[in-house]
Amino acid sequence: MVLRKIFFVCVLFILLFPALGSSEVKEFTHEVEDVVGKDQSQEAKEKYLVERAMRLALEEAGVYISSTTVVTNMQLSEDKVTAMTAGIAKVKARDISPRIDENKNIYIKVKVIVTVDTSILDKQIENLAKETATMRRLEEEVKKRASLEKELESLKKDDIKRLDQLNSQVIAIEQERQKQRIFREEQALKAKGELNKVQIERLNKEKELQERINKEIAEQEKKRREESEAIARESDRIKRAQLENDQRLSELARKAILKKQEWVAVDESLSIKQIIEESKNIKSEIANISRQLDIQFEKNKDNLNNVFNKQIELTVPQFPPDPGPKGDFETTAEYDQRKADHAAKVAEIDAANRRKIDRLNAELNYETAEATLDYLKQTVSILKDFVNRFNVLQQKAFILPEEKIEIELGHPDADKSLFPMTLKHAGYSIETSLKYADRSKADDLRKTKQFLHGEGTFKIAENVSVSYKTQSIFKLIGSLPTLIRGGGKVGSGVAKAKLFQDSDKNDVSYKLVKVKITHPAMDKPQEINLPEPNKFSEIEMYEKILKESIPEAKQDAERKKELFLAFDNVKKQDAVVVPAPPAVQQEKATKPAPKGKKAKSKKP
Predict the structure, then answer these.
(1) Which partner from 305, 496, 530, 542 sits 20 to 30 angstroms from 209, CA to CA?
(2) Alpha carbons within 13 A on the beta-carbon side of 394
(3) Does the pTM of the predicted model rise above 0.85?
(4) Distance of alpha carbon 30 from alpha carbon 61, whole angstroms
(5) What is the C-alpha separation between 46 and 578, in angstroms, rounded?
(6) CA–CA separation, 228 vs 233, rounded Å?
(7) In this structure, are strands 25-35 and 106-117 parallel, antiparallel, or unpaired?
(8) Which residues are bridge partners to 430 per DSSP?
(9) DSSP-based three-state secondary structure for 98
């Protein structure tokens, strides 16, 4: 019986030993000391040091709790450990001891003792283990709430960022839609067994084109974000307006690059119908880009005018106070001298203020000239690829068998050994000649002239009968020499040359450039070359800007820069001498001259 009791006690001790061993009360002591500032009260400093000491002690307790086995096994996060520490930690004691050093500075020393009972921690861990699923749901709700708050914060950004984000989303959706469409087409063709070599190449080209566009869009989004950040950091209004203008111009350049990515190589696979359609699209793009460049240029000029006009309004002279009436014990000469000094000071300040305003106007003229030069350079830079594409398309020649060319053979000219010949196509007549060497064959040819056949070679050309309208960029080109000279009405040069087609009348056709004549009686075909089509009006505009407008704008900017810098290079001895008032001059003129010297008369 005794042995059974002893055995029962031993078993009970073994079962209770882990719980007793795991229960422990741990103390954490932390002391802080700091001087009371001149602008602080002792009570506020004591409250601050108590909170700081308690925070440090709780952090030390949290480190200890994190190292315990039960917490380590649970793999709790730092926030959970901190929250648990605040729940089980208790402030056992705190001591506040002020002292004064030899410099009469008040120091406050705070000592805080925090206790942690791990037995309570075990119970909380057990409860936490039971509510893991609940905690996970709470964490998901917190994350979801944080995500919603982040989205709400992003929606409160400025209009440009919001539009950029919406634009990025639309682009991403469109990209995904294109990918899905291509994938579905490919899968459908594979399923039907109709995926031949030509279709595979077409899909591969379309994939490559989409990948290039996606890559370009990603790079542009990155640059767009960098530009937006640069604008947000810029505090100077002039530079900020310039950065915003540069960003808009860069956006136009990026859109032009995207259009370029859609171009395909000019080879035998392109038909004349495709080239005509692409030429019309390019003309529309150039018209659209030019209009947007004009708008940005006008906005940039308005920004410059607003900024400088505001500075001119704020440039107000600070005149000295009025000299006041004559004092009771002040002589007339002293009073006149005091008034003269005041008038001279006012005149000096007024002259300096006028000089500041003149300098601001000179700077505005210089900045406007620089903006004009940048505008023309940006126009050339953006339109360069479009113009080159126009040249490539216009050099492509096509043989169109379906285009009928009528041939009328005239009476032979025996002296010159040729037949006068008239070629007719699409209502146009071309007078030319057909040479012969063998008279008998020439006679056979004349008798069987109905077998003459003409094969035409064509190139795209601009329909000159289309009505055009003037765009503001050409107004600028025409008026640029007048603007540089300063003032005056716009001349009748390029400004009145209607180079830009209307967006709904950008007609492009094709022109006959060569005819190959064949006949059974001829030993070999005879080729007749005709005049090449004129350059597209956009190409003429581009060359006009590049060769004439940009050099003129550059000279104008350099001249106005010199005028602006001249204000900062004026020496002190070149400053304006302010004349004294007439009363002072009269007084000096009437003063008697020193002995031995003859008085000089001075005009007032």
Answers:
(1) 542
(2) 19
(3) no
(4) 11
(5) 66
(6) 9
(7) antiparallel
(8) 423
(9) strand
pLDDT digits (tens, 9 = 90+) for 104-128: 788 888 888 888 776 776 676 666 6
Separation CA 238–CA 234 (nearest Å): 10
Tokens of 6: 């002893």
Task: List Cβ neighbours of 460 (8 Å cut-off, separation of 6 or more).
Answer: 272, 275, 276, 279, 393, 394, 396, 508, 509, 510, 511, 533
Burial class of 603 by CB neighbour count within 10 A (0 to 12, 13 to 18, 19+):
exposed
Where helices occur in 315-331 by DSSP H, the ranges are none
In which element (H, E) is residue 386 found?
helix 332-395
232: β partners: none
Domain boundaries, the chain: 20-155, 157-263, 267-604
Residue 348 reports pLDDT greater than 80: yes
The two structure tokens encoding residue 290: 């030019």
Q: Please check whether residue 457 is in contact with residue 513, taking contact to mean a CB–CB distance below 8 angstroms.
A: yes
588 CB burial (10 A radius; 0-12, 13-18, 19+): exposed
Helix 42-67 with 78-88: angle, nearest 10 deg: 120
pLDDT at position 233, please?
52
- Cα–Cα distances in angstroms (integers) from residue 590 to residues 331, 587, 600, in the given order: 17, 5, 9
CB 118 within 8 A of CB 87: no
d(CA 331, CA 337): 10
The owner of tokens 């529309």 is: 284
CA torsion, ordered 324, 327, 330, 335, to nearest 10 deg: 20
Residue 192 burial by CB count (10 A; 0-12/13-18/19+): exposed, middle or buried?
Answer: exposed
Rounded Cα distance, 33 and 20, in Å: 38
The closest alpha carbon to 256, from 300, 292, 299, 211, belongs to: 292
Identify the band that residue 74 occupies on the pLDDT scale cut at 50, 70 and 90.
low
